[in-house]
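Give me C-alpha cells for this 134-residue protein.
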Amino acid sequence: MNPVVHFELPGEDRQRMADFYSKAFGWQTQMLGEEMGDYVIATTTERDPDTRMPITPGAINGGFYQKTSDMLSAAPSVVIAVDDVKASMKDIVDAGGKLLSEPMDIPGVGAYVSFMDTEGNRMSILQPVMPKEI
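Here you go.
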C-alpha cells in the first residue's frame, strides 16, 4: 500500500498564507527561493532529523504553491509515496488516470510526478530519496 505523505495547497499570497497557518494552527513555514518555484514548506508535525519523515504515525507535512489562472492550480492536492515512480506512472495510466508531467527531480526529496485521477482530481506521486547512512 502506498501512503499519503504530503499535501499541497494553492495560494495567491504565500506570505499571507504562511502567516495564516502559523497563527491559526502553529505550523512552521520555510520560504524557498525562485529556483524552487517560490514554494513554501509547511511543517505541521515534528520530523525525524535523519529521515525527515514525521515522528507521529499517520501525520504528514505539506507545502504551499502559487495559484495561477490554470484550473489545475486552484485545488489542493495530496502526494502519495511510491517505491518506483516509472512503474507507478504506468499503473496510473493503466487504471485510467492521466499523467500531467514527466518526473521532476526535487533535490534532496525525490522524483515527483503530477497526474489526474479518473474523477478529475489533481494528485501527485513521489519516489523519495533514501537518506544517506550516517
